[in-house]
Design a protein that fits this description.
Elements (H helix, E strand, L loop, with lengths): L11 H4 L18 H18 L5 H8 L6 E5 L5 H6 L9 H8 L5 E8 L4 H21 L7 E5 L5 H8 L2 E9 L10 E7 L10 E7 L6 H18 L16
Parallel strand pairs: 1-3, 2-3, 2-4
Antiparallel strand pairs: 4-5, 5-6
Helix pairs in contact: 6-8
Length: 251
């Protein structure tokens, strides 16, 4: 650590450039300084706001227009945010109206892309389009037939299984807001599932997480996701049986 230690400064200061985690906060007597205490409370407020944020489906649908793909606006069985947080099972299932919408779009597809609010709609609102601007052209150039993009309010990861199964998609990719932390309220995750169907559990999926400006960039994430998609089709599996052997992803 000696080479990281600035002259006359706490060595932790040099580490702050590598992480948004709270390190080197200092102290005031037996407590932390007032400035750091206030910053902690602000971060906690941002995390709570992210949990209760709303999916901006209209703006997302408008921005998705550039890809010339149909967009379906769907809703889980969780009618409101409080119910969504208390009943995870309802966030994994479509409500009746959304199920009927899907039935009218049944067709064979290679891949379906879904966007769900998860535990931070803020993360999806900020990061989904930037990622898809890089990812969708890659998928199209690979000759994959993409189903209508599905925007899902009050949705959890497993709702992609039911949706993909109805749309007869061989693989699902769901972009979803991750649980906010006190250093990141805008982190988005992407879950990839081969042969999605009702009843699957998380060992059947691959996850690429921490997609945000101060985490994994859209370009890095799209490379990793595209690699996993290609490998899933090649090996006809996903989840614990599919490893990321692509090595380090460059900028």
């Amino acid at each position: 650590m000696d080479e990281l230690k600035p002259a006359g400064d706490d060595f932790l200061e040099a580490l702050k450039q590598f992480t948004a985690a709270r390190i080197g906060l200092g102290r005031a007597g037996s407590s932390i300084p007032v400035k750091q205490s206030l910053a902690f409370n602000l971060a906690h407020a941002h995390a709570r706001d992210a949990v209760y944020s709303d999916l901006d489906a209209e703006k997302l649908a408008e921005n998705l227009g550039e890809f010339d793909l149909p967009v379906l606006q769907l809703h889980s069985k969780a009618a409101y945010r409080g119910q969504y947080l208390q009943r995870p099972d309802l966030g994994r299932q479509l409500n009746t109206e959304s199920a009927e919408i899907l039935e009218s779009h049944k067709a064979a597809h290679d891949i379906v892309i879904l966007i769900a609010d998860g535990l931070s709609a803020t993360a999806v609102n900020h990061n989904a389009i930037g990622l898809l601007k890089v990812l969708i052209p890659r998928l199209q150039l690979a000759g994959l037939k993409i189903a209508p993009v599905c925007l899902v309010k009050q949705g959890r990861v497993a709702i992609a299984d039911d949706i993909a199964y109805v749309l007869q998609a061989k693989l699902s990719v769901i972009l979803i807001g991750e649980r906010p932390g006190l250093s990141a309220a805008d982190s988005m995750g992407v879950y990839i599932t081969y042969e999605p169907k009702p009843g699957l559990t998380d060992e059947s999926r691959n996850c690429v997480s921490n997609i945000r400006p101060h985490g994994l960039s859209a370009k890095q994430a799209s490379k990793k996701i595209f690699y996993l998609v290609q490998e899933a089709f090649k090996r006809k599996l996903s989840g614990v049986g599919l490893k990321d052997n692509a090595g380090l992803i460059g900028n």
